[in-house]
Amino acid sequence: MTHVISKMRADEVSLANAAREFGLDPRTVIRWARSALKKSPNGRYLARKTDRLLRVLFLPTDYGTREVATRDSRQASLVAEYWDAVQRYLQRGDDSALRKFRDLRIRAASGESIPLLTEPEELTRLGNAGVLSFESLYARSA
Fold it and tell me: What is the pTM of this model?
């Protein structure tokens, strides 16, 4: 469901088009993600600017990756930007984008505050071990 809402936001497409792209019925998206949608005066559904839908994401730690649940679309977007910076560092050796994330933390749905790993040496070690890849941003789907 969160992919549909994200697609609607990023590409400004209709609920029907976004749902179709992910093989979902728009009525299913409305049923499970209603809080992330608003109905316009013409009857069409639009994605709200932010939502509180549950997302389970992976974050790198000193020991590999860790699943983290969050209920804030802004936190999920921050994690996506962070992963972009990590991949940029691993692929190009450019750690400039990682600097933005030093001392930043992600607020988990449980209330726990989780620091983002920005140590180049640790990221290199995890990358060389094959632990880090952009595809690992989202946890396994059920």
Answer: 0.85
Query: What is the chain's pLDDT, residue by residue, as a tens digit (142 residues)?
Result: 899 999 999 999 999 999 999 999 999 999 999 999 999 999 999 999 999 999 999 999 988 899 999 999 999 999 999 999 999 999 999 999 999 999 999 999 999 999 999 999 999 999 998 888 655 555 555 4
Which sequence spans correspond to the domains of the chain? 2-47, 55-136
Task: Report yes or no: 138 and 58 within 8 Å, Cβ to Cβ.
Answer: yes
> How do 45-47 and 37-39 pair as beta strands?
antiparallel
Tell me, rounded to whole angstroms, the distance of Cα 117 from its chain centroid: 16
